[in-house]
Amino acid sequence: MCSFSGSIYEPLKLSILQRDDEPLWEKLDRYYRAVKTTILNYQSPTTGLFPVKTCSTCKEAKVRDSLYCAASAWALALAYRRIDDDMGRTHELEHSAVKCMRGILYCYMRQADKVEQFKQDPSPTKCLHSVFNVDTGDEVHPYRDYHHLQIDAVSLFLLYLVEMICSGLQIIYNTDEVSFIQNLVFCVERAYRVPDYGMWERGSKYNNGSTELHSSSVGLAKAALEAINGFNLFGNQGCSWSVIFVDLDAHNRNRQTLSSLLPRESRSHNTDAALLPTISYPAFAVDDDALYSQTLDKIVRKLRGKYGFKRFLRDGYRTANEDKNRRYYKPAEMKLFDGIECEFPIFFIFMMIDGVFRGNKAQVKEYQDLLEPIIFQSYEGHAIIPKYYYVPADFVEAEQSKHGSQKRFPSNAGRDGKIFLWGQALYNLAKLLVDELISPKDIDPIHRYVPRQDQRNVSMRYSNQGPIENDVMVQVALIAESQRLQVFLNTYGIQTQTPQQVEPIQIWPQKELVKAYRFLAVNKKLGLTGRPERPVGCIGTCKIYRILGKTVVCYPIVFDLSDFYLSQDVMLLIDDIKVSHIYGAHQCRRFTRSFSIFLLKACLVLHSHSFGLI
After folding, report:
1. Collapsed DSSP state (helix, strand, coil) of residue 116
2. Which of 48, 199, 500, 612 has the fewest C-beta atoms lying within 10 Å of its C-beta?
3. Does 142 sit behind a cis peptide bond, omega within 30 degrees of 0 on the bond before it?
4. Residue 366 parent element (H or E)
5. Per residue in 272-330, pLDDT tens?
6. Which intervals hold domain GH15-like (predicted)?
């Protein structure tokens, strides 16, 4: 265990004076020394992961924390690309990030059997672990001792993977790794229906061991799916077999679920600071500006304090009233934490970054001014971000009587050798942005921060989620199942084609496309069976496919025959087609031109009341 002797109780104001005319090289050198001292010195030389606690006895590494540390090193490397003689630092920083990303990939791939199980049964006991041994990559905690089901962590890994590859880094090396990433996408696609434990690893706000559907997890999954859809994992050197496929219908269900959940975080969480990285950097998962503003306003109004943001209301984490000997809370115990929730300065940093991305200089200055008095200085002279500020036990009663009346004290991080690496990484990234050493487009090369209507295609992408157009062209093809039916329809002036007349284009039912997808990302060495047999929805059947050199189109699932008698009801089928057509036209404009096939069957058309179908 880490020793808590020598805790810091009074933050020290930074004494580092920066000259206005400081040369670019000196600025970068100052940031390099800060990143090297406060982050990279703690990176594992074997796996590339970063420990949760920086004391020598801590052997745990969390995926989420390591990802932000890798992003910090990567961001500084992007800044060094702007100068000619970087003394090898660009290479060092880039490959520190690559080593971390590949370390996480290594840990994940060792659990390929769990990925396969999770595809079939997405339960908390069959998911990827979120904590690993920092030196070996081994599992640390069994499922009964730790809440590993955190979809946001896997989604964040996929998102940063795309961002870094798009910036020119080579992270994925062979087809085995491509297959594994594709199977991770299969897992993330169903985030909209998989309750998890969320960013805080507690699930329900009441900390009783139950899972919930979290907006932060669904939002990050949506962002990851949008980023990786059609992306080439080998970068500019790849070809079609290194491209990732995303089920657009699954993505759309995540989008709809997120829109319906926000501005709430979950059933028990009214709002939560975990939404900040979802609605802003790095995910930018919300397309609706009004919904973004409503969610952000609620977070700021309910959670902001003098020393940072509360994670959520009545959060007992590290408070004086929390029983450290119990994992879960008792019923109604939450009221003990009212008004004394710990405040986390890291969310001031998220707000600074958000201000930079949105061009809001007033917001950047506001949160920079709030942050400066509550950070302190290491022995080496670098800024140190406390993990949280808490109310000591002696002040709890007075604070609960009058919220905000008592002084809070920083957590045990900083000069005693214990650094909150997640906070340090984000702080360095934010300062690089504020000092304009990097720009938003540098750390977001796939342009997630750009409004959807202004986005353009991204290189290394085979399938593009393009700008939303106001006028959408909907192409409809009427296919008669036989020549006899074609002649009959022609007498009413209805022009159709038969499947034979459209050759070499092949027309498949969606269930045949499902069978073809079963071979996607199959890898016997890793024990991965490919895409589960999930139906292809309305958006998926609106696309044109190229399979083994053949051009394939599919008719919607509503035309599939069923033994259930309602499928033979013509009027019900007409209504289903109308709904499917309107839905497909509305949603497909987010991805591609809408293309729909109407399969006309004799048993339906020749029915006395079936002409409404046409």
Report:
1. helix
2. 500
3. no
4. helix 361-371
5. 999 999 999 999 999 999 999 999 999 999 999 999 999 999 999 999 999 989 999 99
6. 28-455
DSSP string, 209-250: S--B--HHHHHHHHHHHHHHTTBBTTGGG--GGGBPP--HHH
Instruction: Reduce the DSSP state of residue 184 to 3 states and report it.
Output: helix
**How many whole angstroms separate alpha carbon 612 and alpha carbon 165?**
51
> What backbone torsions phi and psi does residue 262 show, to the nearest 5 degrees?
-65, 150
Q: Which amino acid is at 422?
A: W
What does the domain layout of the chain look like in residue ranges? 24-454, 474-610
Residue 128 DSSP label: -
- Is beta strand 545-547 parallel, antiparallel or unpaired with respect to 550-555? antiparallel
Phi and psi at residue 381, to the nearest 5°:
95, 15
Is the pLDDT reported for residue 610 higher than 50?
no
CB 220 within 8 Å of CB 152: yes
**In Å, how far are 44, 233, 504 from 57, measured between CA atoms?**
13, 36, 66
What is the per-residue pLDDT across 249-262, written as a single tens digit (0 to 9) for each? 899 999 999 999 99
List of residues 6+ apart from 313 with CB closer than 8 A: 270, 271, 302, 303, 338, 341
Least Cα distance to 332 among 453, 205, 240, 209 occurs for 205
Rounded-to-integer distance, Cα 213 and Cα 129, Å? 19
Q: What is the rounded CA–CA span in Å between residue 251 and residue 299?
A: 26
Q: Does an H or E element contain 487, and which?
A: helix 483-490
What class has domain 24-454? mainly alpha
User: What is the arithmetic mean of pLDDT over 53-63?
Assistant: 87
The per-residue pLDDT for 180 is: 97
